[in-house]
Amino acid sequence: MDANANGHRTRRPQGKLEVVNSNLCEEAVVGFEYGVSIEDPFTLPIWEAQFGDFFNNSQTIIDGYVASGETKWGQQNSLVLLLPHGFDGGGPDHSSSRIERHLQLSNDPVGGYACAAPNIYVAYPSTPAQFFHLLRRQMKRNFRKPLVVAGPKTLLRLASATSSLCEMGPGTRFEPVLDDPSINDLLSVKRVMMVTGKVYYELEKMRSEHPLGAHVAIVRVEELSPFPQRELFDVVSQYVNATDFVWVQEEPRNAGAYAFAAPRIQRLLPGHAELRYVGRSEHAAVCSGVEIQQVAEQAQLIREAFDGLRGLVADLVIDTISRQQQQPIKPAPPPQQKQQLDAQQQQRSLEKQGAAVVHPASVSHRWSSRPIYASAQSSER
C-alpha cells in the first residue's frame, strides 16, 4: 500500500500466481507449458515434477521443442523444469532427474567460451538464495532460454541449507560458482573438491569432524550449462599449494554431471594435475534398490573423498621446511666484529632514548602546524 498526495492509500499492482494440479500426462502438460512460454514471454511457466525422473514421459517435447526450438525455428522459450533430484531414499526410480541427459542437449562448447548463450541452462543450486536468483534471472534478462533446475527434497528441511534475506537483497545475484566460506588460510589447502548439489552438506559435515579437514576446500559448481569456466578458474587458482583436485558426486560414474564437467575442468587445472573422480561406479540403475546398500555406498564415497589427506599434509610440511632451508643463512660475525656491532647497537639505543625525551623544533613542535612557523621553516631551507 502507498499513500498518494491526498493521504489516501492506494494498492500496488500485484503479480499473478496460478498453481495448477495437472493431470498425470507429462508429455501433454510439458507441451502445454512450452506453448505458454512462447505465447507470453513475460509469463514464467514452471513445471514441477513429483519426482525428477517423471520427465522421461515428456522426452519428445524436451528434445524436439524445448531444447532445439530456437535453433530450428528461432522461437525462444523460458520454460522452467523443476525436477527433484538427489539420493533422498526414494529408490532407483525416484532419485535422479537424469542431469546427464539434459547436459547432453546443451551446445555449450568444451574448449573455450561460447560466443552466445547456450540453448539450455542447467543448474543445481544448493541454497534458497541461489534458487531465488535463478528464477528472478529468468524474467529479468532481455532474452529467453529454458532452464532445468535440479532440486533435492532433502534441502527443504535441512537446517544448514538456509539463506539470509541480505543474500537476496540489492546488489546480490546468482553465483555460478560458490567458493568455500570456511577457508581461512589459502596456502594450507592441499585438496580441492568440486561438487554440485546436496552432497556438499554431507562433505562439509565430514570435514568438520576430520582432524585434517582444514586442508580441504569444497567448491560448489552451481550452474552446469553454460559451464562457468572463468569463474571456476578464478576460485581454484587461488589455492596455489593444492595438488589434488577431485570431482565428488553421489550419482554413478555414467550418470550425473561428471562426464560433462570433467573435460572442462581439466582444461583449468595446472599442467601436472589430473582431475580425480570420487563417487559410485558405473551402474545400470541410478542407485541400488536395497536401502541398506544405498546408505552404505553413500557413506563409503564420503569417506573416500577424505582418504589420503595425511600424505598430502605431510608433503605440505616437507615443502615448507625445504623452502625455509633454501633461504641463505648469514654467517656469524667474528668475536671482535661482534663486539663492535654490540657497541654500535648500544649507542643507537641511547641516542634513540635521548631523542624520545628532547624533540628538536624542526622535528616535532606544537606550533609546527601554524602557517607563520611553517613559512619560517621553509625559508630556512
Structure, explained:
Helix 1 (26-39) runs parallel beside helix 2 (59-66). The chain is globular and about 95 Å long. The longest helix is centred in the last third of the chain and has 23 residues, at 335-357. It is built from 12 helices and 12 strands. Strand 8 (191-195), helix 6 (199-209) and strand 9 (216-221) form a beta-alpha-beta unit. It has a single domain (26-162, 171-316), classed as Rossmann fold. With 381 residues, it is of the alpha/beta class. Strands 3-4-6-5-10 form a 5-stranded mixed sheet, sandwiched between helices. Strands 7-9-8-11-12 form a 5-stranded mixed sheet, sandwiched between helices. Mean pLDDT is 82; it is low at 354-381. The protein starts with a strand and ends with a helix.
**CATH C-level label:** Alpha Beta
As a percent range, the share of strand residues is 5-15%
Helix and strand sequence:
EEHEHHEHEHEEEHEEHEHEHHHH
The parts where pLDDT drops under 50 for at least 5 residues are 354-381
Alpha-carbon Rg, integer: 31 Å
Distance between the ends: 71 Å
CATH homologous superfamily title: Multifunctional 2-oxoglutarate metabolism enzyme, C-terminal domain
Largest sheet: 5 strands, mixed
Give the helix level as a range of percent. 25-40%
Keywords: Oxidoreductase, Thiamine pyrophosphate
Protein name: Transketolase-like pyrimidine-binding domain-containing protein
Cofactor: thiamine diphosphate
Pfam family, one: Transket_pyr
